[in-house]
């Protein structure tokens, strides 16, 4: 499942006439969702449900005309259900609801082995598994000694914290734990964490990952692609 219903307000004016997953990475001629579908197909995915909302018709039109590497179904959320409610609504349209399934946010551009993540999920008998990334801090950092002297400047160092990378593996039972309305990251995920049924899969060293949230992210993604990283 690709969650593609967000407003993308931080990417305006790009999102004034299209949903965020339809924004093209400069120099590629392909929208973000096109890169996602290619990656999912390469990882062995055969069917994708795209959960639409903001300017859904633009996304549906592109999906209907593009040559896609897998089968795609679109589901339109006609009223705001929240992230958890929207996920549950779209999950009802999965082709195999009795099997585990992947999900990804519609603004994520990444490359890593989903098969390895699925194996990690199974080994831990998890109800849900989140991919975890360690993004680079967008500012330069300063190191000091104990006395307060500056000892070094580090440009865009990696964060000391892991974050939710927006890619998931869910067991079939997970759907029933989602709220009809509301945010699963404030309800379902904390509950599973308390019950030790929520796992975190760190992205492998060197795996490409970027969330496309701002115009700067688009520029950086284009640079990384030209350098052979994306």
Automatic annotation (TrEMBL):
Pfam families referenced in this protein's UniProt entry, alphabetically: NTP_transferase
Residue ranges of the region described as Disordered: 1-21
SUPFAM superfamilies, A to Z: Nucleotide-diphospho-sugar transferases
Domain of life (superkingdom): Bacteria
Recorded coiled-coil stretches: none
Residue span(s) of domain Nucleotidyl transferase: 1-225
Protein name: Nucleotidyltransferase family protein
Organism: Streptomyces enissocaesilis
């Amino acid at each position: 499942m690709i969650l593609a219903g967000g407003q993308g307000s931080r990417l305006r004016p790009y999102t004034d006439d299209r949903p965020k997953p339809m924004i093209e990475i400069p120099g590629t001629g392909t929208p973000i969702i096109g890169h996602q579908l290619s990656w999912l197909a390469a990882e062995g995915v055969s069917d994708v449900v795209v959960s639409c909302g903001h300017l859904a018709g633009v996304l549906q039109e592109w999906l209907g005309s593009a040559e896609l590497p897998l089968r795609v179904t679109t589901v339109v959320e006609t009223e705001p259900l929240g992230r958890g409610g929207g996920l549950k609504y779209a999950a009802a349209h999965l082709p195999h609801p009795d099997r585990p399934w992947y999900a990804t946010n519609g603004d994520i551009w990444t490359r890593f082995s989903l098969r390895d993540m699925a194996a990690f999920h199974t080994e831990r008998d998890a109800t849900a598994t989140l991919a975890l990334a360690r993004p680079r801090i967008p500012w330069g950092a300063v190191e000091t000694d104990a006395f307060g002297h500056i000892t070094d400047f580090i440009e865009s160092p990696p964060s000391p914290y892991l974050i939710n990378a927006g890619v998931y593996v869910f067991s079939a039972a997970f759907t029933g734990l989602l709220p009809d309305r509301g945010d699963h990251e404030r309800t379902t995920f904390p509950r599973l964490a308390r019950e030790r049924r929520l796992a975190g899969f760190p992205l492998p060293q060197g795996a490409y990952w970027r969330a496309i949230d701002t115009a700067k992210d688009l520029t950086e993604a284009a640079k990384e692609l030209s350098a052979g990283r994306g």
